Amino acid sequence: MPDNRRKDDGENGRMCIVTRESGDVDMLIRFVAGPDGTVVADLKRQLPGRGCWVKAERALVDKAVAKKAFARALKAEVRASADLGAEIDRLLVTQLAGMMNMARKAGQFITGGMNVDKAVRSGAALAVFHATDAAADGVRKIDQARRAYMFAAEEENEIPSYRFFSEAEMEGLLGQNAFIHACALAGQAGEGVVKRAIMLERYRGAGSVRAQGDARQPKQ
């Protein structure tokens, strides 16, 4: 496995500057000092210069800002915006929406309740997505399909289901490609959608985005 740590990130490498725990690169966000002295999130891990890492959780990014941890880690006079946590959320949302559009063009992201139901029952779906304001009945039917597939295929791991955006929010992000129900299919682009969904879920906290009826969502 390649080591995605940049050689100029210091001895601590991929250690979170808040928790002091080391982790996989996909569990962390890299930060660098921008040309104007502000802290910049390097989500693609490509920006030059000394970097530091924070676990991909909004609460930890906010704590790093409050504790002025970036200046110490980057060993530079840098300023972290008070809304850095919110800015990263917007960047993650933009990345996810962009990958959804890319996957749709590649035939690896399909929409419509009937299409999603069919893909889930056949095992073709990698993950399901619903609008936060989707009708409960529509979500329930696809949840039934997810459970039916797990039972028929004797799968231990369910097809994950996410609710990140309202239909109106998706119209702003995806334009005419906005959806009520959708799913990602196998392939590089479809897998990219799921990877970014997992990242956004981790950053926001799983309880806020899991779809109603998900077996991993705590019952009320």
Descriptive notes:
38% of the residues are buried. The protein has helices spanning 58-66, 69-74, 84-105, 113-122, 136-153, 167-174, 188-204, and strands spanning 28-33, 39-42, 51-55, 109-111, 125-130, 161-162, 181-185. The protein folds into 2 domains: 7-82, YlxR-like (Hypothetical Cytosolic Protein, Chain: A); 89-208, 60s Ribosomal Protein L30, Chain: A (2-Layer Sandwich). The chain has a 4-stranded mixed sheet, sandwiched between helices. The chain has a 3-stranded antiparallel sheet with strand order 2-1-3. Helix content is 41%, strand content 14%. α1 runs antiparallel to α3, α3 runs antiparallel to α7 (188-204) and α4 packs parallel to α5 (136-153). It is α+β, with helices and mostly antiparallel strands and 220 residues long.
The top-level CATH class of the largest domain is Alpha Beta
- CATH level-four homologous superfamily name of the largest domain: Ribosomal protein L30/S12
CATH topology of the largest domain: 60s Ribosomal Protein L30, Chain: A
Q: Considering DSSP H and I runs of 4 or more, what fraction of the residues is helical?
A: 40-55%
Q: Helix-strand pattern, N to C?
A: EEEHHHEHEHEHEH
Count of helical regions: 7
Rg is 19 Å
- The name of the CATH architecture of the largest domain is 2-Layer Sandwich
Amount of beta strand = 5-15%
